[in-house]
Write a structure and sequence with these properties.
The chain has two domains: 154 residues, 3-Layer(aba) Sandwich (Rossmann fold), CATH 3.40.50.2000; 87 residues, Glycogen Phosphorylase B (Rossmann fold, 3-Layer(aba) Sandwich), CATH 3.40.50.2000. Helix content is 37%, strand content 17%. The protein is built from nine helices and nine strands. The strands form two sheets. The protein has a six-stranded parallel β-sheet, with helices on both faces. It has a three-stranded parallel β-sheet with strand order 7-8-9, with no helix packed on it. Helix 1 links the parallel strand 1 and strand 2.
Length: 254
């Protein structure tokens, strides 16, 4: 894939949601360090906050049409998978309708390519996935893609933890959360779908095992808004916890 970006022409990168931003930001940083010009388009407010905290410059456009009306054309298009599409998909689709074909690279930000949307009309030229399951899902979704065009890269956002000082951070975290017992500590981080029910199953298992723990329960930031049913189950389940010490992760900012 390195051959695609030897040109010094502009690379267009896109993200919409926080997960996509976390996946694409390290890639944009790396490409810029190599000397490539990368125009980074972001059409989601929560994602923009991530870019700003990372010190990444970005461009705001209201539509794909406005982007392709620019006189410049990219040498490469990179986009996060983005639930429900986004500017990256729409821009690539418009360019291809006008018979302008530029390599399109999709970067997944979820295990097993869980964020794939089979309704998307644009077939990518390359896909970067987190794991082997993701590769198989991509090949099944786009049979003509070819195994040599699906790369298992892991999750780029986790690269920053390569030199993570585990012991020091664990000590600091335990102090901040006031965890002073020798009980096992369990961190449960929810997504959106089924998270309340998954937490309820965890509670049930702890009860049946008669296992007391320090439970750190951290809901998805958008659960209350985007998964109201699961949020109600989550809240009720926390209220029923009797298997040790409960730390409500929602009360702590990351």
């Amino acid at each position: 894939m390195g051959q695609m970006i030897r040109s010094r022409k502009t690379i267009w990168a896109f993200c919409k949601d926080p997960g996509g931003a976390n996946a694409v930001v390290p890639v944009v940083k790396y490409l810029r360090r190599l000397g490539h010009r990368v125009d980074f388009y972001c059409d989601g407010r929560p994602a923009r906050k991530i870019l700003e905290l990372a010190g990444i410059s970005y461009i705001v456009y209201s539509s794909a049409r406005a982007i392709i009306n620019r006189p410049e054309r990219p040498s490469l298009i990179i986009t996060s998978m983005n639930s429900g599409g986004g500017l990256g998909y729409e821009t690539a689709k418009l360019l291809r309708k006008e018979k302008c074909f530029y390599p399109l690279v999709l970067i997944s930000d979820f295990w097993g390519l869980r964020d794939i949307d089979t309704k998307i009309e644009v077939r990518p030229d390359y896909v970067c996935v987190s794991d082997r399951i993701g590769r198989e899902v991509a090949l099944k979704t786009w049979p003509k893609l070819g195994r040599d065009r699906v790369f298992i890269t892991g999750y780029p956002a986790l690269d920053k933890y390569k030199n993570f000082k585990t012991a020091a951070v664990a000590k600091k975290t335990r102090a901040r959360l006031k965890i002073d017992s020798d009980l096992p500590t369990v961190l449960f981080c929810g997504q959106l779908n089924y998270s309340g029910r998954a937490l309820r199953e965890l509670m049930k298992a702890l009860g049946e095992l008669d296992q007391r723990v320090n439970l750190i329960a951290r809901p998805h930031p958008r659960m209350r808004r985007d998964a109201a049913k699961e949020w109600k189950i989550w809240q009720k389940t926390l209220g029923d916890f009797r298997s040790g010490k409960l730390i409500n992760g929602a009360r702590y900012k990351i």
